[in-house]
TrEMBL record:
<dbReference type="Pfam" id="PF03401">
    <property type="entry name" value="TctC"/>
</dbReference>
<keyword id="KW-0675">Receptor</keyword>
<comment type="similarity">
    <text>Belongs to the UPF0065 (bug) family.</text>
</comment>
<keyword id="KW-0614">Plasmid</keyword>
<dbReference type="InterPro" id="IPR042100">
    <property type="entry name" value="Bug_dom1"/>
</dbReference>
<protein>
    <submittedName>
        <fullName>TTT family tricarboxylate transporter receptor protein</fullName>
    </submittedName>
</protein>
<dbReference type="InterPro" id="IPR005064">
    <property type="entry name" value="BUG"/>
</dbReference>
């Protein structure tokens, strides 16, 4: 990125409120930007009422960079071979656990959509990050895990986890044998994480446009595209306006779900 831009960049990778705060206090000259996942921008503002930042006030969208949907995985030795099997288990009176990488994560949102769509009861086990959730799913300490495709592809390819469904309208090119939840008869569970570039409020539109062009040039590189796709990431460069629209739409969707499901930050 630095090679395509001005050679001097300060990039904050999404580490929650601390990263956002650092970016919002930085100079609005294109030298500081924020690579964030969806959660900090479209979920946290509805979940945490005392955030030190407000995305619409403090940040300017530049471009979506990549997207990655959620994949429902179970331990390799599990008798569950489909999302419907998991729902059936929950209706036997047995407690069935669904892991996420944390309260308010995209994985948590996928679980809430899944529960709402199936009217089934599951025990949500919120971990502090994806790594321990994956470890415990592999070990069978939890029954299933919703996770970013990008974090799960290596474990699926390595035959350590069994994928049973994806949260997209169509099957994924890198997991062609895994059905969508729609195909499994569980409708409306669409949860896609994204990573996008944002800059401090007040950054001139000309700089935003130039940064947007730099992102697009990187993502149009064939090798970059191929490597990202192998990792379960879909290059998704957008205009700044398209990114703003996505933030608005996703923010509304998750705010509604959080209210309807009475999701609390605890």
């Amino acid at each position: 990125m630095a090679q395509l831009w001005r050679g001097s960049l300060n990039c904050a990778i999404n580490c929650g409120a601390i990263a956002v705060s650092a970016v919002t206090k930085g100079p609005a000259d294109g030298s500081v930007f924020f690579l964030t996942s969806a959660g900090a921008i479209v979920i946290n503002p509805s979940l945490y009422k005392n955030l030190s930042y407000r995305p619409e006030r403090d940040l300017v969208p530049v471009s979506i960079v990549v997207t990655t949907p959620q994949v429902l995985v179970v331990p390799l030795q599990s008798k569950v071979n489909s999302a419907k099997d998991l729902v059936a288990q929950s209706r036997t009176g047995r407690s069935v656990s669904l892991a996420s990488s944390g309260i308010g994560s995209m994985q948590h949102m996928a679980i809430e959509l899944f529960k709402a769509s199936t009217s089934a009861e599951f025990l949500h086990v919120a971990y502090k990050g994806a790594a321990p959730a994956i470890t415990d799913t592999i070990g069978g300490q939890v029954d299933a895990f919703f996770g970013d495709a990008s974090g799960l592809v290596p474990f699926v390819d390595g035959k350590k986890l069994k994928p049973v469904a994806v949260t997209t309208a169509k099957r994924l090119p890198y997991l062609p044998d895994v059905p969508t939840l729609d195909e499994s008869g569980i409708k409306g569970v669409y949860a896609e994480n994204w990573y996008g570039l944002m800059v401090p409020a007040g950054t001139p539109p000309k700089i935003v446009q130039e940064l947007n062009g730099a992102v697009r040039r990187i993502l149009e590189n064939k090798d970059v595209k191929a490597n990202l796709t192998k990792m379960g990431l879909t290059p998704a460069p957008s205009t700044a306006a398209e990114f703003s629209d996505r933030i608005r739409a996703d923010g509304g969707k998750w705010s509604k779900l959080i209210a309807e499901r009475n999701v609390k930050p605890e």
